[in-house]
Amino acid sequence: MRYLITTLGCKVNAYESEALKNLFDAHGMVEATDNEVDVAVINTCSVTSVSDQKSRQHIRSLISKYPHAIIVVMGCYAQMSHHFVSDIPGVHIIVGTSRRNEIPALVEQFTKARERIDTVSEMTRLFDYEPMKVTSYSDNARAFLKIQDGCDNFCSYCIIPYARGKMRSRPKDDIIAEVHRLVDLGFSEIVLAGIHTAGYGQDLGDYHFVNLVKDILTEEPRLYRLRISSIEESEIEDELIELVKTNPVIARHLHIPLQSGSTGVLRRMNRKYDTDAFLSKLHQIREAVPDIAITTDVIVGFPGETDEEFQETMDFIEKAQFSQLHVFPFSARSGTPAARSKDQVDPQTKKERVRKLITLSDRLHADYCERFVGQELDVIVEDYDGKTASWRGHTSNYLEAHVQSPDDLRGKIVTFTYKT
Known about the structure:
By secondary structure, the chain is of the alpha/beta class. A hairpin with a 4-residue loop joins β16 and β17.
């Protein structure tokens, strides 16, 4: 049977799709290379209402494009809205955020019985960690490694704790074994990923995220670069900062979600810090690692966000000197406290605030890049960029780099002189 997997959303979804691909391959199925598709899977996203809409559009598009294929809908949208998904004619198998490792068997079951299968359980907070692993990777230089699932933070705008369930950690031995496998396959960089990545170990007693990082570095000395996909301010321990300072294998880049530079908005978001604590942690990190890149996420137009509170965010970001921002207009997600607020910000105001923050981000990023012009930096080459006729990759501090060469540099580590 020939399969096709379409992935929407986050790095964790990308990992889970790759793990499913490995499962299909192990069951004797082959990835489709043309329009002849027997099983079409879509791994959906539900982080915003826009994500829901995209998921629905992609589901219908797959059904239309592959009318004779078995259609499998999995992931967060399937979990949170499986009653809507089940109303779409042409969907054959619905799997939420558990039992995804059973999909090849479910396909076989459907092939025999030809009856719709819906495995979605609404008891997400009772889910155990699902053993999915990657035994090979179709990417080229950078491999994502999922270390945990779920979240217990319950930020007032976020549906993910309901979609993904409680925080649960992957067994350490499974993680280390996968690190060895990925290095054996030739990957120079591994990115630790999860729904709440550095929450790893909260369910394990006295073994925490920093212990896992130390064990990976100790047990796999061949690894060239280890990157942390995202980490909360409160989880950046002194011991982790010291590791970043002293061990060059850890990427000189931390993505620390801010969401708002207004303490009042942070309180309404149910975030667990204020701006003073956040800024203090940034100073501590930069004192140890002066040239580190620190990127962040910002949500604008959160319910009740005044002009004054937005200006507080602008001022705080200037003070924090992030190297880049990921800016998102607030999207009301049905089922969350923030969506029920009567104090919604109008779309035009959100659009203007997004524009201002993107302009600020562009300036901060240019300023950060300028500091490295003329320096010798290492880049792990990821792919070829036809627009610039050069090989593209990222440095340890996540500067995008372009290297001219007639040779195939994919996956190679190249030292070059940085220029913007």
